[in-house]
């Protein structure tokens, strides 16, 4: 799966402090790989948001395709089985 960001933070984006609770061991290990933990976490979080948005959009597209197929079946058979049993 290709992850693309739809909204990358810009250097001029306003920042705000937040509290995160992270394992000391994980933070110590992360410091070996990055000097800017905040930027790394922000980058990873932006990637996570983009992947969740893409998954949601894919699910919506699949649901819309299903509805279209179901409507085509109903049109082909002249309506829904439930139409014969409507109380309205």
Task: Reconstruct the topology from this structure.
Layout: H1 24-31, H2 37-77
* Coarse morphology: rod-shaped
Over the alpha carbons, how many angstroms does the gyration radius reach?
24 Å
Unreliable spans: none
**Helix content range:** 55-70%
Percent range for β-strand residues: under 5%
Oligomeric nature of the chains: single chain
Amino-to-carboxy terminus distance:
47 Å
Number of helices: 2
| Secondary-structure element string | HH
* SSE class: mainly alpha
Total beta strands: 0
Please describe the biggest sheet, giving its number of strands, its sense, and whether it closes into a barrel. none
Average pLDDT value? 86
Structure report:
With 88 residues, the chain is mainly alpha-helical. The chain has a domain at 26-78. Helices cover 56% and strands 0% of the residues. It contains 2 helices and no strands. It starts with 23 loop residues before the first helix and ends in an 11-residue tail after the last helix.
Keywords summarizing the entry:
88 residues, mainly alpha, 2 helices, 0% strand, rod-shaped
Short description:
This protein has helices at residues 24-31, 37-77. It is mainly α and 88 residues long.
